# Entry
Amino acid sequence: MNILIINGSPRIHGNISAMLDAIREEAEQRGAEVTTVLASRLQVKPCTGCMTCRETHHCVLPEDDAQCVLAAIKSCDVLVVGAPCYWGNMPGQLKIIFDRIVYGMIGEDTRGLPLPLHKGKKAILISTSTTPFPFNILFGQSRGAIKAMREILKWSGFKVVSAIELGGTRQHPAGEKVLNRCRKAIKKLLLSDKNFTKP
# Structure
């Protein structure tokens, strides 16, 4: 089982990082191979919207870390993406990465409708917000970030099997309760996969 974790937070010791670390540690203990990518450390130029990649299946911009992320997504069985809420959405650096690799996430049929290129793969989504619960959900804060990430992965063919949100992180940073939710999410996914057996 090859698991790719994309950390969309610029804070490498923040709540998102703690939650993703819990997933990584649990997966590794169960024999999965885990790769972690830190979005904030990647060099990725923004998409220019030229649409050429839809026909050529590669980006016209000079090669950068976007292609490395796409290669990792193509080779993974499970994708875990964590992102804090920025204005009810994911951070810009993470969005830029997904914008740049759209041609490797979805294709198009003759009518221009999307064709998922990662059908059958599973995903887990994580988001945090300083907005207290339940307002982080009701006001579309962490829920907005989850919705945006889910939209990308849905059209790419991923089945989102778990989405974990943590609100009010200024007063209540990620503690054992939410870390255990993260551990249980990846444990359940691994145990449900018939092709995965712990060595």
Remarks:
- The first helix runs from residue 15 to 29.
- Residues 23 and 183 are 5 Å apart (CA to CA).
- The helical segments are 15-29, 53-56, 65-75, 92-100, 102-105, 135-138, 142-156, 176-192.
